[in-house]
Amino acid sequence: MKRSLGNAGELFPQSVFIIASYDENGVPNAMNAAWAGECTRHEICFNIGDHKTTANIVKKGAFTVAPADRANVVSADYFGIATGNKVNKAERSGLTFTRSEHVDAPVIEEYPLTMECEVTSVDGDEHGARIVGRIVNTLVDERILGEDGKVDFSAWRPLVYDASHMTYRVVGEEVGGAWNVGKPLV
Fold this sequence. Notes:
By secondary structure, the chain is mainly β. Helix content is about 15%, strand content about 40%. The chain contains four helices and twelve strands; from the N terminus they run E-E-E-E-E-H-E-H-H-E-E-E-E-H-E-E.
């Protein structure tokens, strides 16, 4: 038997994206954003409110996205708790922020995967927007690559946010081959 939960829309885990940007003075900032995802194979889309990161991205036209992993759960959560309007989160986190070679945004070295993005559209303004960015380059630490040269999720252990329980979970278990496991039903 099924039960109605009303219009609750956050019943599934979402990627935990750390979005990094520079302000007008070149100071790096990072925030934790769950309302985000790849909207095509080459684009990132996210919705964010009135944050320092929003203003930075609107001004600079660039950002990086580092999906958080198990090893960085503490800093990932910190980036969602603190506000860049009151504290230098990059400095306080103790992490290493370096300049991207491809876009005007920082790369957080401790995060094993980073997508460097150029803004292609902003629906809104510096106080809140839906932002779409084209992935210009993706950096991957070799330690999370499998023998096939692709990202190994069991080695990476990326986080997802479970909004129903306000907790982070780890992705990694393989349960079946995509476009294969359902073939017996064809």
